[in-house]
Specification:
The strands form three sheets. This protein has a two-stranded antiparallel ribbon. The protein is mostly helical and about 550 residues long. Strand 4 (about 155-160) and strand 5 form a beta hairpin. The relative contact order is 0.19. The chain contains 21 helices and six strands. It has a domain at about 1-140 and about 470-559. The termini are far apart. Belongs to the oligopeptide OPT transporter (TC 2.A.67.1) family. It is a multi-pass membrane protein.
């Protein structure tokens, strides 16, 4: 298992540090990297500051300005994104990472899932009015009441205890979702179930054999043998000590401060148990496809049933499980990078620990500073035109806290909820990899069958929400062009430049984003006021309902 994302960093480090003779008529890898970095840096001022609208160009909306259906089909931000595209690397890589680091077979699997979900499942469900879908936008990460308006969580939440108010809920409305958001949750159920099934079927024997070999100190991997031969391993007590200390501090945080976080100590233990259970299957998928599935939905589901009506407990439990998984996978990935670069394991461990402490301190300080210094942060309706502080990820996080924490899964996906049928996706996910595995056993000479990855296909649109159709369309287009077409037609160029190109594009965007913020945006100087400054695709009707008699904002009323 090669951890594809590490190849970008390995290629960059080699370009920076290895001596290289310039090929005749070509460029050294360092020269190529610098050219890409400077070009990306210079260009990103356009989508980031001067012309943000090119992050989602939706021509269908411009042609049919008064048609709700056309804008639902053509909007790249709030619709199906047909005909929508972007001229911005940040739009491509913002939510799923660089497509240039994802293997071609994984990109093809994702493309199949994305097409089936967004252009088959969602249109059929919406235009047949499944779950009363037409009363709400076709794609939205918000929550709605029965009349199609934004859900007023204050009516169902006790402001004193910060817990669910049953009487207010009975007097108000059940929580409703856009058809896309509902199926996104259903497919999340299926994805995790398929991950367990897929890894057990396709990698179970290998995992068992490698586990036995590890206990006997026998390793087939050449990088592992070289590391064992030349460096001392990290003592196990380092890991156990750090693990126990962090668990203890998490319990203190939950039980202390007057219990404001609502989560008891056993919630931390349960969160760690969830991580331990999913760590191996998700790690295998990440190490082979560069796609990492989160534990956010399954953790919300578990604590939502066990500790309902407590939104803070729900988000804290989700954070401990989801972030712990992400950090653990990142930790493993970095150790694999250490294998590739032959970095002593002890040095890698210490650097990761120091980096985590520094980064978490900086993140917390920055978040605190932004929340206290940026007016109307995370409220796009009140922010000045061109402001970058729209917080799409935090918006999804907040709405998820309403779905799983305030109202709870029993009233959403259980017998009391509107979306109880979504639970069938668990069964679908468990069974989906089985036919592929059977075919791979029946036709072992057909190597391409083993490349069919049902967890990846089922995940469909891995970044949505908070990502949008235009993010996925551009990501897949760029990825397939380079990692399928260029890889097959110009393999020597791909081997030499593909990962360097990815690193240069990422670095240029990052440096320009920092420069723009500290020189202009920190002073609320957000560019010249014109229609292109709006961080939108100018499809205002894409978020409108189409059910008869529903009145929402400036949307037309259907009869």
């Amino acid at each position: 298992m090669w951890w594809p994302a590490n190849l970008v960093q390995v290629s960059l480090f080699r370009a920076l540090h290895e001596e290289e003779v310039r090929p005749k008529g070509g460029l050294m890898r360092l020269q190529f990297f610098l050219i890409v970095l400077i070009s990306s840096f210079a260009y990103y001022v356009v989508p980031n500051y001067l012309f943000p609208s090119i992050t989602a160009l939706s021509f269908v909306c411009w042609i049919w300005k008064d048609s709700v259906t056309a804008q639902q089909i053509g909007s790249g931000r709030r619709g199906l994104g047909i005909g929508s595209f972007a001229l911005d690397w940040a739009t491509v890589a913002a939510f799923i990472g660089s497509p240039l680091a994802t293997p071609g077979f994984a990109l093809i699997n994702i493309s199949i899932g994305f097409f089936l979900m967004l252009y088959v499942l969602i249109p059929i469900a919406y235009w047949t009015n499944a779950f009363e879908a037409k009363r709400f936008p076709i794609i939205s990460s918000h929550v709605f009441d029965a009349n199609g308006g934004k859900y007023n969580v204050g009516l169902v939440l006790n402001e004193t205890t910060f817990q669910f108010n049953q009487q207010g809920y009975d007097d108000y409305s059940k929580v409703h979702l856009s058809i896309f958001f509902a199926f996104a949750y259903g497919l999340s159920f299926a994805t995790l179930a398929a991950t367990i099934s897929h890894v057990a079927l396709f990698h179970g024997r290998t995992i068992w054999q490698q586990t036995q070999a590890a206990f006997r100190d026998k390793f087939d991997d050449v990088h592992t043998r070289l590391m064992k031969k030349n460096y001392d391993a990290v003592p196990q007590w380092w890991f156990y000590s750090l693990w126990l200390i962090m668990i203890g501090l998490a319990m203190v945080a939950c039980e202390g401060f007057g219990g404001q976080l609502q989560l008891p100590y056993w919630g931390v233990i349960l969160a760690i148990g969830v991580v331990l259970f999913f760590m191996l299957p998700i790690g295998v998928i990440t190490a082979t496809t560069n796609q990492q599935f989160g534990l956010n939905v399954i953790s919300e589901l578990i604590v939502g049933y066990m500790y309902p009506g407590r939104p803070l407990a729900n988000v804290v439990f989700k954070t401990y499980s989801y972030v712990s998984m992400v950090q653990a996978i990142t930790f493993l990935s970095d150790f694999k990078l250490g294998h590739y670069m032959k970095i002593p394991p002890k040095s890698m461990f210490i650097v990761q620990l120091v980096g985590t402490v520094v980064a978490s301190s900086v993140y917390f300080s920055t978040a605190w500073w932004l929340l206290t210094s940026v007016d109307n942060i995370c409220d796009p309706s009140k922010l000045p035109m061109g402001s970058p502080w729209t917080c799409p990820g935090d918006d999804v996080f907040y709405n998820a806290s309403i779905i799983w924490g305030v109202v709870g899964p029993l009233r959403m996906f259980g017998r009391l909820g509107v979306y109880a049928k979504m639970n069938y996706f668990f069964l679908f996910g468990i069974l989906a990899p089985v036919p592929v595995w059977i075919l791979s056993r029946m036709f072992p000479e057909k190597k391409w069958i083993r490349l069919i990855n049902m967890p990846i296909i089922i995940s469909g649109s891995p970044s949505m929400p908070p990502g949008t159709a235009v993010n996925n369309i551009c990501w897949l287009t760029v990825g397939i062009f380079f990692n399928v077409y260029v890889y097959r037609r110009y393999k020597s160029w791909w081997v030499r430049h593909n990962y360097i190109l990815s690193a240069g594009l990422d670095a240029g965007v990052a440096f320009m984003a920092i420069l723009c913020y500290y020189t202009l945006q920190i002073r609320d100087i957000n560019g010249m006021r014109w229609w292109g400054l709006d961080l939108d695709d100018h499809c205002p009707l894409a978020g409108c309902p189409t059910a008869a008699g529903i009145k929402v904002g400036d949307c037309p009323i259907f009869h």
